[in-house]
């Protein structure tokens, strides 16, 4: 994919300049060369798209197996309020770290790398949010302590991403999950108070979660 991007850029930007296409539009040889270049660009674009799609597919397939650990792991060591990176979060970080390592090793263009990471963030948010909703439908999962643990795990992940300079990108794609987790991590006393407009908007975003909490007496 990296080589194809470089070749595509060369054909698009450098070949016309080197051959002077704009000054010799009627030259039969250049017309033939231009047609061949356009065909090559089409093939390269297909290669890039296919490789990108396959990369996203296999990375998200791998992430799917470890993401639930972010909901299940306890980042608080026994008898301590200090955060530690639990196995569930570490597994997710390792996949992202290896992805970044490969992107750097093979010198993938920064725009392609950013787009790939954006897909991974989008998938992670959607997968975790859906799992959170499914877990809650069975009862017993929506508890304040669980919300605090998930919030801490999510913060560990987002802090690591922030360290890469991608904090804004991650915040955008993890917004829905973060909103739901904030509600789950809100103490019961706060939920029983009159709801301000911001909380009402948050409840509207997480209707299944809020309905479950209300139905079970805000446990």
Automatic annotation (TrEMBL):
One of its GO terms (cellular component) is cell-cell junction. InterPro entries: Dilute_dom, Vascular_dev_regulator. One of its GO terms (biological process) is angiogenesis. Pfam families: DIL. Residues 38-219 form the Dilute domain. One of its GO terms (molecular function) is GTPase binding. This is Ras association and DIL domains 2a. It comes from Callorhinchus milii.
């Amino acid at each position: 994919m990296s080589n194809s991007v470089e070749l595509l850029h060369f054909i698009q930007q450098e070949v016309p300049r080197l051959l002077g296409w704009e000054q010799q539009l009627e030259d039969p040889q250049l017309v033939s060369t231009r047609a061949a270049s356009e065909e090559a660009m089409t093939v390269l674009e297909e290669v890039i798209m296919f490789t990108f799609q396959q990369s996203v597919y296999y990375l998200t397939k791998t992430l799917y197996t470890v993401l639930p650990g972010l909901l299940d792991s306890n980042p608080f060591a026994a008898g301590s309020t200090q955060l530690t990176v639990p196995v569930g979060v570490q597994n997710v970080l390792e996949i992202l770290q290896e992805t970044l390592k490969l992107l750097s090793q093979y010198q993938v263009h920064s725009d392609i790398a950013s787009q790939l990471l954006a897909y991974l963030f989008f998938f992670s948010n959607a997968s975790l949010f859906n799992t959170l909703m499914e877990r809650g439908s069975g009862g017993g999962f929506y508890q304040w302590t669980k919300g605090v643990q998930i919030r801490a795990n999510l913060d560990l992940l987002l802090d690591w991403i922030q360290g890469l300079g991608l904090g804004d990108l991650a915040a955008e794609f993890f917004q829905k999950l973060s909103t739901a987790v904030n509600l789950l991590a809100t103490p019961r006393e706060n939920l029983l108070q009159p709801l301000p407009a911001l909380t009402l908007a948050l409840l509207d975003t997480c209707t299944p979660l809020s309905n479950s909490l209300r139905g079970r007496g805000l446990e």
